[in-house]
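Re-run requested by the PI after the first attempt was lost when the workstation crashed. Everything re-entered from the original request form. Ligand of interest: MRU.
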Amino acid sequence: MRAVELKGKKVVLIDQTKLPDRLKTLECLTVEDVARAIEGMKIRGAPAVGIAGAMGLAIAALGSKGKTKREILKDLKRAAARLRRTRPTGADLFTRLERVVGVAERAKGSAEEVRRAVVMEVKCIVREVDETDRTLGTIGAKLIRDNDTVLTHCNAGWLATGGGYGTALAAVRMAKEEGKRVRVIATETRPLLQGARLTAWELKRDGINVTVITDNMVGYCLSNRMVDLVMVGADRILKDGHVINKIGTYTIAVAAKRHRIPFYVVAPLSTFDPKSEVREVKIEERDRREIEEIFGKRVLPRGVKTLNPAFDITPPDLVTAIVTERGIVYPPFRKKIPEILRTP
Ligand code: MRU
């Protein structure tokens, strides 16, 4: 099962808003369908959003009536602009769109050649993601000892990468495959409950021991030594080691530092943004109804103000290490991240 797939001229994805009650797929026939699926969190998780975006470009290329390379490129760029407007914080979307548009620009020959180049690049990205998930898992599992309890936040599993293993959850899966006994504490992750709905669903299906807590129980679990290490994914990582991830990650990192519990981030290189400074990162602000309502039922008095940032920023001094497919990066991040990004 895959979170998102390109099937002919369609993007088929698991509608993650319906989990865990229903395992339902959704077919996107147009770029607009893909954009709306991303905005509506039907597909989510930075790497999976990146893949969906790339597949959106494949649909644009295949559906374009363009007869020349120039005409197809015009359609592709329009599609990329629409997809870029969906979610502003995760880096993968921008990395993937840039890569696919770049390939189309460099493609030689006819409109048909451009279409073929785009589809081949998207398939190549999918293969890479599978391989990367596996490598992240193998490397990340080294940080997990037999009998450890890992605290994770949001969903950094295969639903979030589109690959077979995920990022932070790939490490847990590999540790289990290696025969280690491993337990997971998953935060429910309000407002959209990706931890309760998705992480718990993924892990239960794999027979991994998972306990769900509400977000405000993290301090209790850490201070009572119920957690050996924290492992989370990331939506964007800057060259100086700032980690942008699901809202609440920063709070967990602060508490982990207070209790001297290692705080690890597991992320592919496609999530790194070597260009931006922390002040330039745009934190997505989502619809107030996500706070006002729980499953369609209003829980706030009318007229009360809300705040709904989808992500927060964890500064480098709270991060013990970052697991990438090229190895584990330890501080000083300002020196080590550019080095790992340069390594071929
Ligand atoms: O808003 P979401 O559900 O897309 O946020 C997802 C997260 O924050 C994940 O933890 C992150 O993308 C890492 S996933 C491999």
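Saved to the shared folder this time. The mean pLDDT is 97.
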